[in-house]
Amino acid sequence: MIHSPNRLLSTIFGIVLLLVGLFGFFLATPYPFATAEGGVLIGLFAANGFLSLIHVLLGAILLLAGLGGVRPAKVFNILFGLGLVVFALVGFGIAHTGANIFALNTPTILLHLVVGLALLAAGLGADKVILRAPSAAVAKA
């Protein structure tokens, strides 16, 4: 059982990003790999092959970090959280331009921003001190 907020969030978002990336590949099949055009997941979130590949890679790393322990989960939550926030901010600037090689639309950008902020908040705020019962106290009980 996972008792760390960082491990839990890393594992959950890892699984979700893996699934979103895999579904994104199926939706993006008729479109070129890295263009502004892409498939739409649940009628809202746009994705192409390039963005789906990024989701699969991020998802796999987050899942492994979450299963690996508190320290890797915390580190990757901070790194990927910051990366997703920056990606979302850049996405707002390129969404409706020729530079949009990720098929970003506003809901997709907002979702990346929310996920990034959640990962960053957990990475920076949770698991500062991991409390463990001293072995002597456990032996007396």
| Shape descriptor | globular
The largest pleated sheet is described as: 2 strands, antiparallel
Helix content: 55-70%
State mean pLDDT (0 to 100 scale): 87
Distance between the termini: 22 Å
Q: What are the secondary-structure elements, in order, as H or E?
A: HEEHHHH
Strand order of the largest sheet: 1-2
What amount of the residues lies in strands? under 5%
Count the DSSP helices: 5
**Rg (CA only):** 18 Å
Structure in words:
With 141 residues, the chain is mainly α. Helices cover 67% and strands 4% of the residues. The protein contains five helices and two strands; from the N terminus they run αββαααα. The chain has helices at 5-28, 49-68, 70-94, 106-125, 135-140; strands spanning 39-41, 45-47. A two-stranded antiparallel sheet has the order 1-2. A hairpin with a 3-residue loop joins strand 1 and strand 2. The radius of gyration is 18 Å and the shape is globular. The chain starts with a helix and ends with a helix. The model has no long low-confidence stretch (mean pLDDT 87).
